[in-house]
Design brief:
By secondary structure, the chain is mainly α. It has 15 helices and six strands. 43% of the residues lie in helices and 7% in strands.
Length: 380
């Protein structure tokens, strides 16, 4: 860092780093020593110099230990603020495990990228540049999390304002992924390349309308064949003020696939299970049971089966081909086509309102134009 120049009597009334230059002024960067001419009136030059000093002041205090000696306070680094945000705010939120895990990954990335920086150094210019490396929906999700971090920091006196909130709000790109068709799913179900356990999983998803993470953890003990019911407590709502607990009365098709799951000759606590070809210790320890199907494995095997049978080869962009998640939407639509009321489907899907259920049901067929009959009976 360049040493500051001594102020003489003429310069004493001026802000630090601002000096007269004949009729106009010069500003000397206290970090680089670079001198910049300011060809403006005195009042404007003073205003600019003060703004520059305020912006550069945090950058001059990179030595956290020395700053602590001078101020008596520990320098708040980005990593320290993120740790406090995680412990004092995020940990107290009622979030689904998957949401909490996703946020954890993001926070660790921020600490790796910016952790050693002092939080006061991160202004709107820098946070905007950092967010610009992400695109579409990823940008929106990262920006949302940074807004929460800055909100927390400002509330704790660790930041003057929420600079993340000043960054550009970008409109999310429309979802590329297309909906399933009944013909496409039937092709996957009839293919010899689709494993039997996966066929059961597909049918179970269509008939029960449950989420992927709930399908793979659905226990056999939840079934009561005598009463013809199956119970489930949906994982996504377990931290809600009112969690969703369902006791589903099984129709004939659902009862059939549940019966097939129970008859599978594998000693497993779960309805969906399979016999791994290899049992690596690390893989076994990462699962709830050696026979369990993880949600990630279900997704990957479904994608493989879908492409192996060519069910959606007409969709050239593989990213746009429907995944296991869209089975839930197709099942919801099939219920609607068989004249089940929205309230019935809404209850089965565990939705708090009918609007979300309607969203899942849409997009499976071309909508005809509906003309509303009106009159134009004005007399001139």
């Amino acid at each position: 860092m360049a040493p500051p120049r001594k102020r003489d009597s003429k310069n004493r009334a001026l802000p630090e780093n601002l000096y007269p230059n004949g009729k106009y002024w010069r500003y000397r960067n206290p970090i680089t020593g670079k001198v910049t001419s300011i060809n403006k009136p005195m009042a404007e030059a003073i205003k600019l110099a003060k703004a520059a000093n305020a912006k550069l002041a945090p950058l001059m205090a990179n030595d956290g230990d020395l700053l602590e000696v001078l101020t008596g306070e520990k320098a708040p680094t980005v990593a320290a603020v993120i740790d406090r945000f995680n412990e004092e705010w995020l940990a107290l939120r009622r979030l689904a495990d998957s949401t909490r895990e996703e946020a954890g990954y993001k926070l660790e990335r921020y600490k790796k990228d910016l952790g050693s920086r002092m939080f006061g150094q991160i202004d709107v210019l820098e946070i905007a540049a950092y967010l610009d490396q992400f695109h579409n929906n990823a940008y929106t999700k990262h920006r949302t999390l940074w807004v929460q971090i800055f909100d927390f920091a400002a509330a704790k006196g660790l930041a003057e304002r929420n600079f993340a909130e000043l960054t550009l709000v970008k409109q999310e790109a429309e979802k590329v992924r297309q909906r399933h068709t009944l013909e496409g799913v039937q092709k996957i179900l009839s293919a010899n390349t689709t494993p039997d356990w996966l066929k059961r999983a597909i049918r179970l998803a269509l008939l029960s309308l449950q989420r992927r993470e709930d399908l793979v953890t659905w226990e056999r003990s939840a079934v009561d064949m005598a009463k013809n019911t199956i119970r489930i407590s949906t994982g996504k709502t377990e931290n809600y003020a009112t969690p969703i607990h369902l006791e589903i009365e099984m129709g004939s098709d659902l009862r059939q696939v549940v019966s097939e799951c129970l008859s599978t000759p594998i000693a497993s606590p779960y309805l969906l299970c399979y016999m791994p070809k290899r049992r690596r210790r690390d893989q076994m320890e990462a699962k709830l049971h050696w026979s369990a199907v993880t949600d990630d494995y279900l997704s990957k095997q479904f994608t493989k089966a879908r492409d192996d049978c060519g069910a959606y080869n007409h969709i050239t962009d593989k990213r746009a081909r429907p995944t296991v998640h869209e089975l839930r939407a197709l099942g919801s639509w099939l219920y609607e086509k068989q004249n089940f009321p929205t309230e019935y489907v809404q209850a089965l899907m565990g939705h708090a309102d009918g609007e979300m259920t309607t969203y899942y049901q849409e997009g499976h067929e071309e909508k005809a134009i509906e003309y509303q009959r009106v009159r134009a009976d004005l007399k001139l």
